[in-house]
């Protein structure tokens, strides 16, 4: 069995690393804010002091970080991942970042003899805890096969999209749908309330309809109570919609819903909702229509 390293114990990284531990894997952990490692060390993980130590003492190094800036910092900082990179090491980056940055990070790792996979995930915190994520993979296929036993612990399905960056492209594609659906539900609720309809009945109507989804059920209480404790923060959804816009511009394609959604989530972020769950875009739309 491989020794695993885990860097990034936020909303997603913590339950994912915990699942590997509970499945009996040997896991070394590092997080910038040290206190987040405690639940993992209490469950048998070994806490190390830097990304460099994680690479030195692990065969396969998983990263679950906010964005490209975080990944770049963890790779290139003093005592970062690259400082200990050598042949035989595998970096599995599960963060959602741009395809372009993915390819650049893959080159940095391969220049030092390692292999870098992009393996972002679909599914939020509850799904991560349940080990039911969808792993969206790009990079060397043989290395993905080596990692498959661990992906099987983290998720219910791995979909391989091709060379380095393709996993990141696929992740942005599904998050475009997520952002649009999130705004769609928000607009539907604002429209219904402005029409004088009872919100509880509207929530029930959606639940009973063909438009019911696991996503909607997961966030229904947030819409009901207008409280949005974060699973997937507005600021991360906004980050992804910004990446989608940049990709669309690069490919010279027009995506009207992506444009509109990008603007709404960005405004939610700027209006004090950055750390709330993405469902709070409903609140943003509601506030914009209070008059
Ligand atoms: P999060 O709770 O904000 O965690 C972010 C992690 O990145 C934390 O461990 C944080 O460390 C670390 N980090 C940020 N900047 C860093 C830096 N400069 N150097 C070192 N570490 C840094 O985010 P999350 O919700 O777990 O999401 C992680 C990734 O998964 C994101 O790319 C997100 O888009 C994606 N994703 C999220 C969900 C979801 O539902 N939440 C679902 C699918 C995919 P600290 O603890 O020190 O801040």
From TrEMBL:
PANTHER family: CYTOKINE-LIKE NUCLEAR FACTOR N-PAC, OXIDOREDUCTASE GLYR1-RELATED. The active site is at residue 171. This is NAD(P)-dependent oxidoreductase. The keyword Oxidoreductase applies. Belongs to the HIBADH-related family. Keywords: NAD, Oxidoreductase. Residues 165-282 form the 3-hydroxyisobutyrate dehydrogenase-like NAD-binding domain. Residues 4-162 form the 6-phosphogluconate dehydrogenase NADP-binding domain. SUPFAM superfamilies: 6-phosphogluconate dehydrogenase C-terminal domain-like (SSF48179), NAD(P)-binding Rossmann-fold domains (SSF51735). Pfam families: NAD_binding_11, NAD_binding_2. The lineage of its organism: Bacteria, Bacillati, Bacillota, Bacilli, Bacillales. It comes from the Bacteria. One of its GO terms (molecular function) is NAD binding. It comes from Thermoactinomyces daqus.
């Amino acid at each position: 069995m491989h020794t695993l390293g885990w860097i990034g114990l936020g909303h997603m990284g913590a339950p994912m690393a915990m699942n590997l531990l509970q499945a009996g894997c040997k896991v070394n952990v590092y997080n910038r804010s040290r206190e987040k490692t405690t639940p993992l060390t209490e469950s048998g993980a070994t806490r190390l002091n830097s990304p460099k130590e994680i690479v030195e003492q692990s065969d396969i190094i998983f990263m679950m970080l906010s964005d490209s800036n975080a990944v770049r910092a963890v790779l290139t900082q003093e005592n970062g991942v690259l400082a200990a990179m050598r042949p035989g090491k595998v970096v599995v980056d599960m963060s959602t970042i741009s395809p372009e940055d993915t390819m650049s990070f893959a080159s940095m790792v391969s220049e030092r003899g390692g292999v870098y996979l992009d393996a972002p995930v679909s599914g939020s915190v509850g799904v991560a805890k349940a080990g039911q994520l969808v792993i969206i993979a790009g990079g060397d296929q043989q290395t993905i096969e080596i990692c498959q036993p661990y992906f099987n612990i983290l998720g219910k399905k791995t979909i391989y999209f091709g060379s380095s960056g393709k996993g990141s492209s696929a992740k942005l594609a599904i998050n475009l749908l997520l952002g649009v659906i999130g705004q769609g539900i928000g607009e539907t609720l604002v429209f219904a309330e402005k029409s004088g309809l009872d919100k509880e009945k509207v929530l029930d109507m959606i639940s009973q309809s063909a438009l019911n989804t696991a996503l909607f059920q997961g966030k229904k209480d947030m819409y009901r109570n207008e409280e949005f404790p974060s699973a997937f923060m507005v600021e991360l959804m906004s980050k992804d919609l910004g990446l989608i816009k940049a990709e669309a511009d690069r490919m010279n394609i027009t995506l009207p819903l992506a444009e509109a959604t990008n603007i709404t989530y960005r405004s939610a972020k700027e209006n004090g909702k950055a750390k709330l769950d993405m469902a709070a875009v409903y609140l943003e739309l509601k506030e914009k229509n209070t008059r």
